[in-house]
């Protein structure tokens, strides 16, 4: 390691240890001003670990007098974006919001405009949008739209492939997709290539089924628990409902609930508007929501009901089980999603899940892609 590399390493250690290590490891080498700016920017954030008052953080070293003035929130955001790579920016912004509760990042329009749109930022906006003034709320809506559009780009193609067509086993296709693999024909057509010495089948050609478009309409009702613990599920449910509503063979309704039930079907084709109408928190009355959704079912045998909840019922459990039994007996296909987040981390009432499954509901923790596969499987039967 040459002298330049050694100085750079020491400067990085100095940043990690903070300004109280300055006497032991002062900044050195070239670019001293930039190192000092980075130090000041990090200190602005991590000083929150000790409280806002400098005398509380370190009674022996109060920053005042001839020292630099403290950054404002807006200045801090500017410095973060100038001095650090994107990956670091996201970490710093997330810690500012999550760890240190710097909600001013979300309630100042000029600051909010400078934040990097991402999934975690969208979640935080949805949690505090109730305290935003109209100007900030408009900026927040633009951030949510950017993140939602990215989610749509990632999910829409997969969902359409799962739902728009059914496998036609009477025709072969040149489209090579694993889900369309004709295993039986592939084996039969390649038996002549069996290698006896190596005891394996050599595939010269792999055959696939064709897919035909579905025209018959299915009704999909999605009911989403909007309690605080279900935020990831609420987001992905809104996005999936938007995709479903764009498919001609599906008629989609969307309902959110806590102890009250709100029908957001008029916004179903706009996930952003759906999310802006969500009010996270409160209790949970699943039975009441099920009873409302029961009234939305007109053709039970062609209805898919997706209930997104952790199944922790705050209302009457008997009502929850009774309405579920009635829906399933009428012919409704019912899926209870205990998680809809990208990591599938389920947290739900397992006793209630077992009882719902015994009534005939399909209970599972699925990713959005797996949900599309399940819906596609039902309508392709």
Figure out the total of helices.
16
CATH fold label of the largest domain: Rossmann fold
Overall geometric form: globular
What is the average per-residue confidence, as pLDDT, rounded to a whole number? 81
Whole-number total of structural domains: 3
Terminal-residue CA separation: 66 Å
* Residue runs with pLDDT of under 50 for 5 or more positions: 52-67
Structural class: alpha/beta
CATH architecture classification of the largest domain: 3-Layer(aba) Sandwich
* Strand count: 10
Biggest sheet architecture: 6 strands, mixed
Strand order of the largest sheet: 7-6-5-8-9-10
Rg is 28 Å
| CATH class label of the largest domain | Alpha Beta
State the order of secondary-structure elements, H for helix, E for strand. HHHHHHHHHEHEEEEHEEHHEHEHEH
What report would you give on this structure?
The protein is of the alpha/beta class. The protein folds into three domains: 134 residues, no CATH class; 49 residues, no CATH class; 162 residues, 3-Layer(aba) Sandwich (Rossmann fold). Helix content is 47%, strand content 14%. It has 16 helices and ten strands. The strands form three sheets. It has a six-stranded mixed β-sheet, with helices on both faces. A two-stranded antiparallel sheet has the order 1-4. Helix 9 packs across helix 16 and helix 13 packs parallel to helix 14. 31% of the residues are buried.
